[in-house]
Amino acid sequence: MSFLDFPSHANLNFEGVSAVVFYFTIYALIGWLIENCYSYATKRKFFKPNFFHGPFKPMYGFAPVVLVYLIGPETNWGIIFLLCFIIPTFIEYLSGTLLQKFFQRQWWDYSNMPMQIHGHVCLPFSLCWIFLSLACIKWIHPVIISAYEAAEFLWAWIWPAVVLYFIAELTLSIRRHSSQALADAESTNPIQ
Question: Is 136 within a domain?
Fold first, then answer.
């Protein structure tokens, strides 16, 4: 039996969407914890600026969800490593590019790192994503599945509210950062 033998809830029915929202929520929270622990270890500051108000990093929610739905027990190890490199790197690059384009702000900057692209991604961190992704698939996701199965009855009642929370969080964050980007633009280019 492969370590990748776990139910994926890949159907996009009620239960499937419920599982995706659960996985996304847990991984977005774990990502927030990872980022803040890294910030504390490197800068002695736990709370790092976040796009959202709450303790969630959406790109950390998307990458594992995409990976667990793309990788199965029959997936070749070469493909697994490639996906664990490409998916998180692509999501990080896309996130950084969109955030910079729409809000004229860069939440992270790898410009001083080797083999970086536009400061949004770099080879050293992309290599880290491989190991984090493999650890996620092998050890963390089976635990998350068990947590989902244990909480499934209660989660069935809660997850629509969680979706509404994320919609509200996204809307308020877009409004907040748009206002801030506009204010920054006006302060650097005052009307004469």
Answer: yes
Q: How far apart (Å, rounded) are the C-alpha atoms in residues 156 and 79?
A: 34
Residue 4 lies in a domain: no
Domain that includes residue 135, residue range:
14-188
Q: How many domains does the chain have?
A: 1
| 84-121 residue pLDDT tens | 999 999 999 999 999 999 998 888 999 999 999 999 99
Torsion sign over Cα 41, 46, 51, 55: positive
Q: What is the pTM of this model?
A: 0.87
Distance in angstroms (rounded) separating the CA atoms of residues 95 and 105: 12
Q: Does a structural domain hold residue 6?
A: no
